[in-house]
Design goal:
single chain, 3 helices
Length: 64
């Protein structure tokens, strides 16, 4: 589960950097690379994509 948490955190930070600095900023590019690497590692370990990015309906079903 640590891989999923890392992928979510990296994606969140990348979106924040994108919002503040724009796409061409080196920090944004580095965080996007980290997010994609973390997601790829989680995928390689067998985690499904929806474990990283869940839709609201999926989150509601999991909470039950």
């Amino acid at each position: 589960m640590a891989l999923i948490r890392a992928a979510r955190t990296a994606q969140y930070l990348a979106v924040r950097a994108l919002t503040v600095h724009g796409l061409a900023h080196p920090l944004t590019l580095a965080l996007l690379a980290a997010a994609s690497t973390a997601a790829a590692r989680a995928w390689d370990r067998g985690y499904p994509v929806d474990a990283i990015h869940t839709a609201p309906a999926q989150r509601a079903r999991r909470a039950r």
